[in-house]
Amino acid sequence: MKSKATIRDYYKSVENVSDEDDEMSQNETTNQYIPLVQEKGRLRTKQYHTMDVQPLTPAAVTAETILKNLGSRLEQRKKLILRRRWLVDVEFVMAVIGISLMMIENELFYLDPSEKMSTISLVLKTFTSITTGVLLIAICLYYQTGMEIRMLDGGVDDPFAVTPFWTYVAWIVEVIVCAVHPFPSNIEVVFVSPRGHSRVASIDGILSVLMMFRLYLVGKFIVVHSRLLTDPSTQSIGALSRIKINLFFVFKSAMSESPGILIVSVMLTMYTVSCWSMRTCEMYYTRTEESQGFSQSMWLSAITFLTVGYGDVTPQTHCGRYIAIMTGLCGLASTALLVAVIAKRLEQTRSERYVFNFLSRIHLENKHKNAAADVVKCSLRLWVMNKQGGKPTLTYTYFRWKLRNAVREMRSARATLAENEESTVGVIELSHMISRMTVSIEKSLEAQNRMSEQMTKIEKELQDMRSHLK
Q1: DSSP 8-state assignment for residue 313
Q2: Each residue of 203-231: pLDDT tens digit?
Q3: Does residue 426 or residue 412 have the better pLDDT?
Q4: Which of 88-92, 198-202, 295-299 has the highest mean pLDDT?
Q5: DSSP 157
Q6: Which residues contact 428 (CB under 8 A, 6 or more apart)?
Q7: How far is CA 345 from CA 248, 252, 259, 349, in A?
Q8: Intra-chain end-to-end CA distance of the chain, in Å
């Protein structure tokens, strides 16, 4: 029986053999699993270094071996998913700590503008840089873990064979977004206001505002801890249904379950971030007073978020203008979500729609019957008046007018009833129709079987009569 060999030993043996022994080695390893790509220049993980090469002979491929390999792969996949969740927790914690330290440093600057080169400021910025470094490392490990999961699912040991191009793009973008933060120094540049005034100020204000983009990690944190993902069967069901369980899927599920709470939370978060960013831009580069800057930023963010725009307060910096544009776009998105939720709440459910259609059908049928009865009564009354003869009177004209209205109402009710029946075909009607069709088909099959039995009896009797005649 052949001994087990690792993939690395296999490639070393292939490189060391001579040209004469190459054909023999190929014949001996014909029944072994050969990776899709060569080993040179590929990123490998620890578990794939020690992966044994099993000969795919009929004796080795047994149900016990398959179940053992499948169980080990599922266990390894579970460990990778838990590690990825732990990395997301580290990203979230580091992002929150970094943002908190940045906000504390900014508040100290608002109280004392000469605080930028103090020891407290440098210490806070240093810890912010440390948390940023840990965050970037966690992001890289997160994407590496995702590659290992894809490699394990695909049964290959090359990440480039199973990782799409847009994953690398998302990796680079995420690293760039999370790398922005105020550095442990005081870098000052010349800023020009929209009115043309020049001023030397620190770039920490812009870096602090850009650092708020890290809040997207809150959504990732909610996704990995959502009950839709913590359930062991979720990933299997999503894979079988070809549906990606991601942030958008969890967001739509939350919108279906509790749309009011979700929309209010999103709107308050957007408004709070907009107020803080507007206040930071204005106070860094215009030296506005604390109370005035806070109140003006709240008012400006509110009228911009609600797409009102009175024009009494305007941003005094380019940074503030960009924040106002982003606030307006967020307000439009929140309004669209709110309108969608209200429209969905006002829409009738399937049961309510069925009851409404049933009641409407009863009302139209009664209206049609009453109109038909009026047509009959008016027709008889006019026929009696015509038999009696005489000149047309006011009563005769009244009944003719009533007859025309009754005919018109009867036709209208009949047309509306037909339209209602055509447009209200739902699941219940379809189920009733399918049940009736099933019963009809069964009855026809029974009748056909009885006819075939009778034909068989007739044929048998004919054969008996022929035998007697002979």
Answers
A1: S
A2: 888 899 999 999 999 888 887 877 766 66
A3: 412
A4: 88-92
A5: S
A6: 354
A7: 21, 15, 10, 9
A8: 79
